[in-house]
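Fold it.
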Amino acid sequence: RVEMSYAVLRYGGSAYNYGMFYMPDGGTAVLDHTSITENYGYGVYVLSQSSAARTTSLTITNSTIANNRWGGMYVDGGQEDAVDLVLQGNNIRNNGQGLSSGWSIGTLGITLESNTFSDNTYTAVDLYIDSSTTLNFTNNTATGNGNNSMSLSGTLNNDLLLPAAGMTYQLGLGVAEGATLTLGAGAVIKLDNSLYVDGTLL
């Protein structure tokens, strides 16, 4: 377990896109009031490379993730892996991507609350979701990014509310039978490809 408060992580990463703060094989980390900036690859990189199932828990609060060449954060892993990511009250700015995830994680839980995504070169948030993904989004905003959207692709198997919180949602998404996608009042939705609904759309 790693805990950091009021720390500064700078000038790391590599040409292989790994991050300054790198979690390759599971574990637990809690970062608070931490600055992760000016890194060559990603600021934070979670990628299990083990053949065994790993569980990764990462919580980042009240922190700045900025000026990282490839992106602020990248999350991925194997089909047997589980990742629990909580981001609360962070400023994620001037990176390549803001936050992005791969497509192969076995179980992925993401909580995004009161984060600001600004001036990232590409998409503010770009997530692939599947049958074992749980999402919780509240009070996030995006301004000045190449794409101010929260881009969601894959298949939604759990209920999800998309609130009107200053971010456009870009969907190339399927809603599976038994799942409910709720569009909050005032939420702005753009379709990246198609929205396939076998469940419920409210």
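The CA atoms of residues 4 and 31 lie 5 Å apart.
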